[in-house]
Amino acid sequence: MYTRRLSLASLALVFFLSSAAAVKADVIAVWNFNDSNLIVDRGQGTLTTTANPANIIFLPGTDFEASTIPIGDPAGLALAFQAGTNLQNNGMIVEIHVSTLGFENVAISWAWQRNDTGFNDDVIRESFDGTTFQGFSFAAINTNFFGGNHISYFAGHPAGNNPFFAIRITLSGATSETGNVRFDNIVVTGTQIVPEPATMLLLSGGLAGVAAEVRRRRRARR
């Protein structure tokens, strides 16, 4: 009898310890653009843009930043935006919306590249309600080779466990109609939130109590 009660209580404790040990980042959403569209390729999320659809193209991509994807993705294609006629896409916006419910230590990374006349005045903003964005970073995209950007948030930051988390990137500074920038391997990761030790102890105590009550009722029926 004692052995059974102990095993039920221990089960909850083992669950907590194993969960606490598994702190590796999990993929929340991935866009690799190898299928030539803006639809998320893994997980859930949305990517939208104010660019003229005629200036949204797909060019050869990279595997840079793909190492953050557990199974790895081939270089394939990359999402590219051109400045367009009369540089109409200067000031264009790219928005990424991802629910991070159940995750903390959120990180978002991507690879990007611009040509010599592409967008080089670029502001990144974040939102925790899905509509209000605040600026926190300026980024000049690398010229003629793929570089990357990586933004990480600590546990307890509003980006974690948030159904409305979003990133907005505003692109400006292109100087020719064919000036462009490419995005590839946009990856959002996080670590799953595990219960606090006190919660697990309450759970283990509750399981032990349930087991004791079941045994009492069985004895009473005999």
Detailed description of the structure:
With 222 residues, this protein is an alpha+beta fold. It has one domain: Jelly Rolls. 20% of the residues lie in helices and 36% in strands. It has two helices and twelve strands. It has helices spanning 2-21, 197-221, and strands at residues 26-31, 42-43, 46-49, 56-60, 77-82, 92-97, 103-114, 121-127, 134-139, 147-152, 166-172, 180-192. Strands 1, 2, 4, 5, 7, 10 and 12 form a seven-stranded antiparallel β-sheet that branches. A hairpin with a 6-residue loop joins β8 and β9 (134-139). It is elongated. The protein starts with a helix and ends with a helix. The relative contact order is 0.24. The model is unreliable at 1-22 and 198-203 (pLDDT under 50).
Low-confidence stretches: 1-22, 198-203
Approximately how much helix is present in the residues? 10-25%
| Sheet/helix structural class | alpha+beta
**How many E strands?**
12
Task: Say what the CATH topology is.
Answer: Jelly Rolls
What is the N-to-C succession of helices and strands? HEEEEEEEEEEEEH
CATH class group: Mainly Beta
- Strand proportion, as a percent range, falls in 35-45%
Mean pLDDT score: 84
* Cα-based radius of gyration, to the nearest Å: 24 Å
Total of helices: 2
What overall geometry do the principal axes of the alpha carbons give?
elongated
| CATH architecture designation | Sandwich
Task: Please report the distance between the alpha carbons of the first and last residues.
Answer: 16 Å
Major sheet summary line: 7 strands, antiparallel
Count of discrete domains: 1
